Amino acid sequence: MLPHGLFAVNKPRGKTSVDLLNALKKLLRNGSKKIKLGHGGTLDPLATGVLVVGVNDGCKELSKYIKCEKIYSAVGLLGYGTDSYDSEGQVIGIGHTQHITKEMILNLLPKYTGEIMQIPPLYSALKMDGRRLYEYARKGIELPKDIKARTANIYSLTLLDFTFEHNFKPPENKITNKITNKITNKITNETTDEITDEITDKITKLYISSESKNESNNESKNESNNESINESNSESNNESNNNELNNNELNNNNPIFKIHVECGSGTYIRTLVHDIGKDLNSEAHVVELVRLQQGEFKLGINTIEWEDCLNIENIFDALKKYNQKTFPLTN
């Protein structure tokens, strides 16, 4: 007997929300009997934490969880910007970090509290002309129109930590032609023209230097990349940009900052971290993201660990508890 209802699982890092649903469907399917599953809002593959899952008639209740308040903790690594705004993406911007202090970040938080404007990341589930944005990005397809800024509501934003001592590593993926052509040409907004121009300048210099190296020695992909980059940029008027990739501060000791965010639906934490990096005259991307709460579901309190889902009795127990408030048990 499979009850209808809702339960929440702690999504592990590396799985997409769809991956998790497909795995759950295999666990819960009874013979050839069909089962309907859905979730109450996508979590990034990098993210962990609360994912609300609807079973059969419980899927009708998922819309309220998509729209409800959510709570996250996020860690941003300063000094590197990526096309996905997280550590899964490719580097499209670099910045200095030695000037950044805890007080600078604290002073920025009021700017990002309340109703704000955000440009969704290219690697997101937002649809454009019937196709999700991440599908354009992964296939290298040019966007049919610009990604426009949209309203987001952040009810509370707290800095939990700022430190140079951590185990997070810089992103390994390098810039590609796809990023140069597809990202910078389509992420637009009147209030961010200067930021976009700054990114474009850095990308162009980095990409040209990368292409020059590949043409001169296509078989060599070693530590001489940084020298080639500096040589190809020798005519640049900005000496600091020429040396950015081999700057001593751009290493594993770049600082991180950890934030606690209480927000409404449609808020992109990756964009928040990215924008904070820009306002610090640097770059930043997400290296850790945890959804701590979604509606009444709280991580570690009324959520199931993914490993515990392998015993379907744990799922049944969670559904039965929910059914006591919402649905009768059905076959």
From TrEMBL:
Gene3D superfamilies: Pseudouridine synthase (3.30.2350.10). Keywords: Isomerase, tRNA processing. InterPro entries: PsdUridine_synth_cat_dom_sf, PsdUridine_synth_N, tRNA_psdUridine_synth_TruB. Residues 225-249 have a biased composition (Low complexity). The keyword Isomerase applies. It is an enzyme of class 5 (isomerase). Residues 212-224 have a biased composition (Basic and acidic residues). Residues 211-249 are annotated as: Disordered. One of its GO terms (cellular component) is nucleus. Residues 33-164 form the Pseudouridine synthase II N-terminal domain. The keyword Isomerase applies. It catalyses: a uridine in mRNA = a pseudouridine in mRNA. GO terms for biological process: mRNA pseudouridine synthesis; tRNA modification. GO terms for molecular function: RNA binding; tRNA pseudouridine(55) synthase activity. Its EC number is 5.4.99.25. Belongs to the pseudouridine synthase TruB family. This is tRNA pseudouridine(55) synthase. It comes from Diversispora eburnea.
